[in-house]
């Protein structure tokens, strides 16, 4: 069920956007506009309590009111509303949710409480969760721009997976400058559920992905990561950019050894 729901999350036919908004500058407004302008061919379902119509589409008041089961629910609500929305997603048989909201904000203690609650919801329901703090998912070949990135990059055969929104933006800028494209562009955010190993396993079975580039700040599931990377690096190259080289030589040596054992090529720059 986990990989099946992950496939639906990453290759959705039906997308709901919770907190879809008419106000410029909000996550909900940006992602709805990008899905439409990117040419998404599936079903779009905006959700907002106070919005009756958006982009000539009926706006649903809540997730429970959706007429179809969504593959992907994009959550751009205030942090405290996120658990309630996720429970509604699970009750609606959604495959997955992508949380763009920053649940940590200014209150670290409350952020940790919300993170624990979100993890428990995923474990209890099987709902796959990308994020929080995810910049989004882009798959140019499928005309999917479920992100806040305003300009769809060209299609290619490279998959880029990143924990850092800053680096994600820099890589997109570089792609525009150097004229290379992507098969997948996936922002993992805080990784409360979907992790590097999940995505590597998925990409290993995607024939259109020829190489995988990772930006890794830290690993939370080391054994699962090593297993997935060791398996997939035999059939397609995996390249990792890990910052902090030289800052902690002992820890850095551990990462170097792990990457070598997994068949991963480590680089020091995105250039």
Lay out the secondary structure.
Layout: H1 2-10, E1 14-18, H2 27-37, E2 43-47, E3 53-54, E4 57-58, E5 72-75, H3 82-91, E6 96-99, H4 108-125, E7 128-130, E8 136-139, E9 144-147, E10 155-162, H5 165-178, E11 182-187, H6 196-204, E12 211-215, H7 222-232, E13 238-241, H8 249-262, E14 265-267
Parallel strand pairs: 1-2, 1-5, 5-6, 6-7, 10-11, 10-12, 12-13, 13-14
Antiparallel strand pairs: 3-4, 8-9, 8-11
CATH class of the largest domain: Alpha Beta
Biggest sheet strand line-up = 9-8-11-10-12-13-14
Task: Tell me, briefly, the overall form.
Answer: globular
Total number of distinct structural domains: 2
Please provide the count of β strands.
Answer: 14
Name the beta content range.
15-25%
Described by its quaternary structure, the protein is single chain
**How large is the radius of gyration?**
18 Å
User: SSE string, helix = H, strand = E?
Assistant: HEHEEEEHEHEEEEHEHEHEHE
Helix/sheet category: alpha/beta
What is the overall number of helices?
8
Cα distance, first to last residue?
A: 38 Å
How much is the average pLDDT?
94
